[in-house]
Amino acid sequence: MEAFNSIANPLSSFFFICILLLLANAAFGKVHYHDFVIQATSVKRLCKTHNTITVNGQFPGPTLEVNNGDTLVVNVVNKARYNVTIHWHGVRQMRTAWADGPEFVTQCPIRPGKSYTYRFTIQGQEGTLWWHAHSSWLRATVYGALIIHPKEGESYPFAKPKRETPIMLGEWWDTNPIDVVRRASRTGAAPNVSDAYTINGQPGDLYKCSSKDTTIVHVDAGETNLLRVINAALNQQLFFTVANHKLTVVGADASYVKPFTTSVLMLGPGQTTDVLIIADQPPAKYYMAARAYASAQGAPFDNTTTTAILEYKAASCSFNCAKTNPVSPSLPAYNDTATATAFTTKFRSPRKVEVPTEIDENLFFTVGLGLNNCPRGARSRNCQGPNGTRFTASMNNVSFVLPSNYSLLQAHHQGIPGVFSTDFPAKPPVKFDYTGNVSRSLWQPIRGTKLYKLKYGARVQVVLQGTSIFTAENHPIHLHGYDFYIIAEGFGNFNQKRDTAKFNLVDPPLRNTASVPVKGWTVIRFVADNPGVWLMHCHLDVHIGWGLGMAFIVENGVSELESLEAPPVDLPVC
């Protein structure tokens, strides 16, 4: 008997440890390790081969799949000739701001030949996010999907789809995109528009030298699939549709939404939309297509159309499909603001949510373009904007300037003086007719590295007010480190007395990127519960380069769990 006990006890101990490990795994999730090698790779598009910056030689980069509660550890090795950082777009990064990624905001760049390991946990998010470079215009080709499944043993709030397919909408230049933005920085003019849009890296049938590589998404007749649509384009809002098929929207920016059905999506750069599509049409090939929503009157844009093919795998399709062209969809007009607005205003949370009602910080930020007069002594070739000016952009008349010797987070954490100031204005310095004819005296913003300080736990409302300085357009505004409730949007100038009646404080959608309507406004609310330095900017990269951004400092709370973690030992130095 004693011999049996001596065997049984180790066995029971072993099983007890196994059960503890399983429980721990369920509670804390898995840890996923990845290596990202940033490198130049030969990529051929539109008949021409380019030395394109990629991750692991893939374009688009690898899709990462995790469960809610899992941890990602991604070692990024920079073998390219440019500085690089990686941003995990939409990840809350609770207390891990050091892993957020925007260059000179939460870290110094990873220099050529150096590396940095991003470590963070997904907390309370499910759906589709993505990752991308956050340094110069590298995100034109350095991007990939980040798919967050429910926790092990949990399910979607809708019937499990037969298949799930990421649909990454991108933008392609038939040249080096870094050269495009550098030329624009020198001249002060707007950068050249892209030469193609892409779906999962391929332009599709409507472009030269492209049809043999067009992306094909296979479906079986009658099945329901989940399409995870991501706008990874650099500078363009996009309409997306599938010929003859309805799309049921079930999620956006890794939050579930009250399902609604539509024939067309509109996504600003940075936004994601999860849709269910039922293969309920006669078996055939159907085009998926995306093209520009171009809201800026008179501004040049890429007016091409990218396509992929939804192909039924039914036997009746095999013979017919090979012989016939895919069914073509109808897309909205490029400037169809009514369709864009009808889409964005349909979003609701699935149920009643806890929206902050008492507000501690009531902020009003103008967002828009500007023109700087040609600096004294500058050559005309450096002032090729309208009438010999240089393009700029600003929030509340401050054109955001990134530091270069320290990151903002490092300067904040270590108390390094002289890197930034905390006097970003809570409202515009001058009140004006924001969407009317704006006096030319207001077209030239000041430059500065100004931040706005928030106490931990502050309940924040921000009115994002578009302006018509130079030209009005739709701006996709992204806030790092946070999701926020979009409680209202409208056209014209926001009016506190009139427009508060439009606030949805019951079931507004939770997003990380808001499309501020052309000549209009959007109101967002969030609780400042994540300490760090968090960038808020227009996700049209041409605009962030011109200064359309700002950053919040969120102070530490009282306890350790309300405080920023210590910086990692391998944090890059400037």
Automatic annotation (TrEMBL):
Signal peptide (from-to): 1-29
Annotated catalysed reactions: 4 hydroquinone + O2 = 4 benzosemiquinone + 2 H2O
Cofactor detail note: Binds 4 Cu cations per monomer.
One Gene Ontology term, aspect cellular component: apoplast
Documented EC number(s): 1.10.3.2
PROSITE patterns the UniProt entry points to: MULTICOPPER_OXIDASE1, MULTICOPPER_OXIDASE2
UniProt keyword annotation of Oxidoreductase present: yes
InterPro entries found in the cross-reference section: Cu-oxidase-like_N (IPR011707), Cu-oxidase_2nd (IPR001117), Cu-oxidase_C (IPR011706), Cu-oxidase_fam (IPR045087), Cu_oxidase_CS (IPR033138), Cu_oxidase_Cu_BS (IPR002355), Cupredoxin (IPR008972), CuRO_1_LCC (IPR034288)
Keyword Glycoprotein: yes
Essential cofactor(s): Cu cation
Main subcellular location: secreted
Keywords: Apoplast, Copper, Glycoprotein, Lignin degradation, Metal-binding, Oxidoreductase, Repeat, Secreted, Signal
Domain Plastocyanin-like: 38-152, 164-314, 423-556
Cellular location(s): Secreted, Extracellular space, Apoplast
Pfam family, one: Cu-oxidase_2
GO-annotated molecular function: copper ion binding; hydroquinone:oxygen oxidoreductase activity; oxidoreductase activity
Family that this chain belongs to: Belongs to the multicopper oxidase family.
Function of the molecule: Lignin degradation and detoxification of lignin-derived products.
The name this protein goes by in its record: Laccase
